[in-house]
């Protein structure tokens, strides 16, 4: 395949004329934007090439010749796209690099458990989460959480709260077996044990649920602007107090969204967006919505402002803008556990924005 043919492939992608296979290939290769000058990360493309070569060569012994030819063509396309970009695109300008002197590490397992009596326990960052028992709290590996006392009143249906700071995440297994994942700057208020006819929790921020099935005890999630009722399902709720819109995305099962004057059943692959002016139901890619739980920061057609909000919470940094349009849209994903400079570098490759790190503040500037 010639460079001209590869360039034509990328042009077809921008025009929305690629086949499904071509589209998946291109989108997995790089972080893209609506700017036609957008370019991928060399490391990302190299990794993609070698992963595909390894996958195809490992399976060739069990396949006939035709799939081998197909695999070879796919590998050549991957290599061709990389070299086309590597040798034809301009290098980032020095001004885009010189602001990356300071770096900020990614967030991690950080949370505080507030018991019903007001006692606060800082949870171990080497553990990923905690589990509620009838009269005690343990880490997910079974080790008791230190600092508990017999008078901490965990045996009664009293309410406790788990909260993560900016730059934190944590898991929780409730007494009924329901699994909960908290993103940065989030909280959940829950009882040590549920009643015989209802399971109810209250959340703020972004929380993912895998509800334990119990037909006799419906599960209800409360936020500032909505009630979510469910029997057994998986869903993601984004309800940050500093955002005007709450989003509830259903991965599996069925839920009912309720608020004053509104009640609607939501089905898998759909999102309910709740704002002051009403509720909007839309179809979404649930893999993108829940990417944070899989260890990624996803930029699926999101605005620059939304992307920087994610970065602000996860890296615990302040964001400011200088002569740049915050409504610019980008796409792609990057590891959630990379240092912030790597995340920003991927965005700079689009040649639309550049960044300056000033202690715990990131300045977003026009490229």
TrEMBL record:
<keyword id="KW-0472">Membrane</keyword>
<protein>
    <submittedName>
        <fullName>FecR family protein</fullName>
    </submittedName>
</protein>
<feature type="transmembrane region" description="Helical">
    <location>
        <begin position="68"/>
        <end position="88"/>
    </location>
</feature>
<dbReference type="Pfam" id="PF16344">
    <property type="entry name" value="FecR_C"/>
</dbReference>
<keyword id="KW-0812">Transmembrane</keyword>
<feature type="domain" description="Protein FecR C-terminal">
    <location>
        <begin position="297"/>
        <end position="364"/>
    </location>
</feature>
<dbReference type="InterPro" id="IPR032508">
    <property type="entry name" value="FecR_C"/>
</dbReference>
<keyword id="KW-1133">Transmembrane helix</keyword>
<dbReference type="Pfam" id="PF04773">
    <property type="entry name" value="FecR"/>
</dbReference>
<dbReference type="InterPro" id="IPR006860">
    <property type="entry name" value="FecR"/>
</dbReference>
<dbReference type="GO" id="GO:0016989">
    <property type="term" value="F:sigma factor antagonist activity"/>
</dbReference>
<dbReference type="InterPro" id="IPR012373">
    <property type="entry name" value="Ferrdict_sens_TM"/>
</dbReference>
<feature type="domain" description="FecR protein">
    <location>
        <begin position="161"/>
        <end position="255"/>
    </location>
</feature>
